[in-house]
């Protein structure tokens, strides 16, 4: 299969499952296609014994109290676990909460956490501030490091290796199976931010212990939901994660969960088109004289492309662009301001196209593939790709005339 076909193939393969997962069973009296939205805080029981028995089932995705999850949240959790290939999912209030909740659940004072240098910026900020303040040691590994380098960075007290592949700003793809093997050999867990590859990367088949997703992105898909999820495939890990989520009051609102369930239904076909358009636009940008480098995992020039080719069944809609060093950051800013079809904003994964400068917004300890020229990232939506290219073309004219 060519890379052009592969970027959308995994999404289309997923489409049938997404249409049927977490759906109500038809009854003789008739059943609505979509699950009902259930809001509530207090759950009442017919007897004290019934209440006490249900209260002991906190690991079973049942309704105990609104702050421990709603029926709508529990159905979304089942759907996410199915897509990820895990056993249990905890839905939380945001993508960042999906990163921080398991870190708090599995780390304690005196432990060491080793993070990929291209990890999501707010995750890094949490590690540098909150985790360090709680007595957790923090260090980073180069995203493209080999096994010997990773092994040398492990410590006797390393309990978590946290990675994100590809990175959401610099797009290096990592050898996740290698990271898992080294982490496990040293008694550590591998946490994996699977937001970019959710649906087209099977984390637990590659040795991941805890998989993290920002449901805000592809699953919800319409830029109107903030939610996250943490998935595991081990009962012991699930109990630790679930207890921590309850103790921290980590829960998502039923409306956000219902909207995410609705968004999931179309995620396969949405992303099949968006992935196809994104690669088409990325290849067009490669031909432009203003562009030094395009960082799209499906392109051979992207760091770790061979791991994308080996491990992923599709590609996302987000990629990076590095301009030639002849241009300044101010030149790039004028180009961005001239665009008509790309919104300027954070986040990604919705139906609309976005652009965001990455120069000046990245903290790194090691060399970055976007450090040699002004850089930005593109989220490609459902617009006609020819219209998106035409808009970029006129933007690049502004860049050249600066």
TrEMBL record:
- One GO biological process from the UniProt record? transsulfuration
Kindly report, in one word, the top-level EC class recorded for this enzyme: lyase
Going by the UniProt record, its keywords in alphabetical order are: Lyase, Pyridoxal phosphate
Q: Which GO terms describe its molecular function?
A: cysteine-S-conjugate beta-lyase activity; pyridoxal phosphate binding
Q: Using the record for this protein, list the coiled-coil segments as residue ranges, or answer none.
A: none
Q: Which Pfam families would you find in this protein's record? A: Cys_Met_Meta_PP
What superkingdom heads the lineage? Bacteria
Give the enzyme's EC designation: 4.4.1.8
Where in this protein does the record say N6-(pyridoxal phosphate)lysine is found? Answer: 217
Cofactor requirements of the protein: pyridoxal 5'-phosphate
The UniProt similarity line reads: Belongs to the trans-sulfuration enzymes family.
The name under which this protein is listed is Cystathionine beta-lyase
Q: What is the lineage of its organism?
A: Bacteria, Pseudomonadati, Pseudomonadota, Alphaproteobacteria, Acetobacterales
């Amino acid at each position: 299969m060519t890379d052009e076909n592969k970027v959308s193939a995994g999404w289309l393969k997923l489409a049938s499952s997404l249409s049927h997962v977490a759906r109500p069973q038809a009854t003789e009296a008739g059943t609505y296609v979509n699950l009902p939205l259930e809001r509530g805080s207090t759950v009442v029981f017919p007897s004290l014994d019934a209440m006490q028995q249900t209260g002991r089932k906190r690991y079973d995705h049942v309704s105990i109290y609104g702050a421990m999850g709603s029926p709508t949240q529990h159905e979304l959790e089942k759907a996410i676990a199915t897509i990820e290939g895990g056993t249990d999912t905890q839905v939380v209030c945001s993508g960042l909460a999906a990163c921080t909740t398991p870190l708090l659940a599995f780390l304690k004072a005196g432990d060491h956490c080793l993070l990929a240098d291209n990890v999501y910026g707010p995750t890094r900020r949490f590690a540098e501030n909150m985790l360090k303040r709680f007595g957790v040691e923090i260090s980073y590994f180069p995203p493209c490091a080999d096994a010997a380098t990773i092994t040398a960075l492990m410590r006797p007290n390393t309990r978590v290796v946290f990675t994100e592949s590809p990175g959401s700003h610099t797009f290096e793809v990592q050898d996740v199976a290698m990271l898992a093997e080294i982490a496990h050999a040293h008694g550590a867990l591998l946490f994996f931010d699977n937001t970019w590859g959710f649906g087209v990367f099977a984390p637990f088949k590659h040795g991941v212990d805890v998989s993290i997703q920002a449901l805000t992105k592809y699953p919800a898909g319409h830029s109107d939901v903030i939610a996250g999820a943490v998935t595991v495939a081990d009962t012991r890990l699930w109990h630790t994660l679930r207890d921590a989520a309850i103790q921290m009051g980590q829960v998502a609102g039923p409306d956000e969960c219902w909207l995410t369930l609705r968004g999931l239904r179309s995620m396969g076909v949405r992303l099949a088109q968006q992935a196809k358009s994104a690669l088409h636009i990325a290849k067009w940008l490669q031909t432009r004289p203003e562009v030094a480098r395009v960082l799209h995992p499906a392109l051979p020039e992207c760091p770790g492309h061979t791991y994308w080719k080996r491990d992923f069944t599709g590609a996302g809609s987000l990629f990076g662009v590095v301009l030639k060093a002849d241009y300044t950051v101010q030149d790039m800013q004028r180009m961005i301001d001239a665009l008509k079809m790309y919104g300027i904003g954070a986040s990604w994964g919705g139906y609309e196209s976005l652009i965001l400068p990455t120069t000046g917004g990245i903290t790194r300890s090691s060399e970055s593939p976007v450090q040699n020229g002004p850089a930005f990232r593109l989220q490609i939506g459902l617009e006609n790709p020819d219209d998106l290219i035409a808009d970029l073309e006129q933007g690049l004219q502004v860049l050249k005339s600066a």
